Amino acid sequence: MKWSGVLAVALLVVMTGCKRETGEQYREYFENDDAVILNDIIDVYDRYRQAAADSTYFDVSAALHRAEAYGDMDNSFIERDTAFALQLPQYASSRHPFLAGAEVFYNSCLLTFNVWSNHELWMRECAGFPLADKEDIVAAIRSISEDCIRDDDLRSAARTYKDSIIVMMNRPMDEWGDDESSDYLLMSFSGKIEAKSYRFFDDEEKFADSLDAMTEEIADATLPALERYRQAERDGRLGLMLHSLNGCDTFDEQCSLFLNWADSPESEPEDVWIIAVAGRLMNSGKYNPALGNIWGIWRCLFQYYYCGISRDSSIPNGLYNEMRKKCYLTCLKRIERHPDDIFAMNCAAVIGGRANINRFGEYPYGNQAAFEKYIYLQGRYQKSE
Q: What three-state secondary structure class fits 5?
């Protein structure tokens, strides 16, 4: 399954783990770092089980939320200023083309996404569902300064993108001409970002095939562990998975098993635990080629579970983008250590170039978290054989 964003190619992969070093032909692309310790999440699970045995109430969401120390989700309708921006002076003179352009690419993408998220609030108001005051929306767009983009051409294009959207917002939509479209402004600026970005592969189809091959190499490694989870009694299934994850030998194995678990139809009632484990994996600062998938799964499930999938729901893209930034930096550190790792470049490009959760898009009845859940977790929607 291909995943395309502002930059070219990424494949959604469902990876499985193993109690050994990950990979054979592609072993060099896995770090085989130590696994993340999940004892505190298991402690929450034990207290939850004890409360159930005692027939007492236990707030799992609150306990896991505290354990993961998620940020403040208040004021999550309007995206303001450039707190999202990265400053990477250590790469400014790098001879590595991806690292040299990493700051400009990331900041350009995030400016694009946050301006668009604010524009969608105005579009929602035009549909009769005011979520924010128009003057506040315009002020917020102006506060997202293009000065965070250290490329003259893209900085100028960003200014044009912002100003043009504001001009269009100052007129009713029914007065727009046939050739006027805010979608066109978005795609035009996105195209300029893509044109400036480092293309780290020569043949898109061949690169996609190599991603498939890397996935297939490890795809069967923990099918026995997954099958034990799926065949376990419903009452003990979650505990079995949490302990299996905590018992992994390496971070790569842990990521693989996590992705298998999240994609399993049996795991849907366990989303709050999947969110917590994903947060722990990403916050560890450890790298895996599927880090972008883990972030995408975490983000769409967090939106589903904590905020909702209505077009009028609070969408804390600021929170999601803080985690995006952590994962992006993790990928850049991997590229520093392994400058020829095209899969790490792909992972960084996917994380940096994936749009915010939007209110409008392919899913006609709510925000894009519903569509992303389907894309990332297709195994949940397939009939059992």
A: coil
Q: How far from 43 is each of 48, 49, 56, 241, 320, CA to CA, in Å?
A: 9, 10, 17, 14, 26
Greatest Cα pair distance in the chain? 66
Structure tokens at 221: 């490694």
- State the pTM of this model: 0.91
What φ, ψ does residue 250 adopt, rounded to 5°? -135, 160
Distance CA 83, CA 317 (A): 12
The predicted pLDDT at position 220 comes to 64
In which element (H, E) is residue 260 found?
A: helix 251-263
Q: What distance in Å separates the CA atoms of residue 101 and residue 329, rounded to the nearest whole number?
A: 13
Give the DSSP letter of residue 368. T
Distance of CA 226 to the CA centre of its chain: 24
Tell me the pLDDT tens digit for each residue of 334-357: 999 999 999 999 999 999 999 999
From residue 115, alpha-carbon distances to 107, 108, 262 in Å are: 12, 11, 31
Q: What is the reported pLDDT for 67? A: 52
Residue 34 has φ and ψ, to the nearest 5°, of: -60, 145
CB-side exposure of 218: number of CA atoms within 13 Å?
A: 32
Is the separation of the CB atoms in 25 and 218 below 8 Å?
no
250, β-bridge pairs: 34
Q: Distance between CA 98 and CA 105 in Å, rounded?
A: 9
At 30 the three-state DSSP class reads coil
* pLDDT digits 0-9 by tens, 110-142: 999 999 999 999 999 888 888 899 899 999 999
Are 328 and 86 in contact, with CB atoms under 8 Å apart?
A: yes
DSSP state, 367?
-
Q: Which residues are CB-neighbours of 189 under 8 A, at least 6 positions away?
A: 112, 157, 158, 160, 161
Residue 9: what pLDDT? 37
DSSP state of 265: G
Question: 10 Å Cβ neighbour count for 312?
Answer: 15
Q: Once rounded to an integer, what is the mean pLDDT over residues 262-272? A: 95
Is residue 222 predicted with pLDDT exceeding 90?
no
Local confidence band at 212 (pLDDT 50, 70, 90 cut-offs): confident
Q: Helix-strand-coil percent breakdown of the chain, rounded to 5? A: 60, 0, 35
